[in-house]
Amino acid sequence: MVKEVISTTNAPGAIGPYSQGIKFGNLMFVSGQTPLNPATMKIAEGDVQCQAKQCLENIKGILESAGTNLDNVLKTTVFIKDMNSFSKINEIYAQYFTKNQPARSCVEVARLPMDVLVEIEVIAYIP
Question: pLDDT truncated to tens, each residue of the chain (127 aa)?
């Protein structure tokens, strides 16, 4: 198997020394996505729900560029600035993962890049 770097304009370009995603065999590892709009490279305007939606849209773009989609996500990790936002993020999350939801971890962190409110990473299967 060969490690393949996945890059797409449907998600923000990396802002550091990392790849948007790595395809390895039939697995796809997506780096943590912040709520940057890929067209403007600005943080999505609005509350934590707007930011969560942008994170998931970025993930969706990366997965699709690798030949998979949100239905094939096996595991997510959600990093949030305030655990009090958990239920609000869940409302958006449930719109993207409607059936056979992936395993998930959610942790509150002291700070995220660019002081965003949420960051999400995933591991997916490529059929």
Answer: 899 999 999 999 988 899 999 999 999 999 999 999 999 999 999 999 999 999 999 999 999 999 999 999 999 999 999 999 999 999 999 999 999 999 999 999 999 999 999 999 999 999 9
CATH number belonging to the domain at 3-125, selected among 3.40.462.10, 3.30.70.1120, 3.10.350.10, 3.30.1330.40: 3.30.1330.40
Is 55 part of the annotated catalytic residue set? no
Sheet holding 27-33, edge to edge: 3-6, 21-24, 27-33, 118-125, 73-80, 103-108
Identified catalytic residue from 22, 70, 106, 126: 106
Can you give the residue ranges of every domain in the chain?
3-125
Q: What's the pTM value of the predicted model, to 2 decimals?
A: 0.97
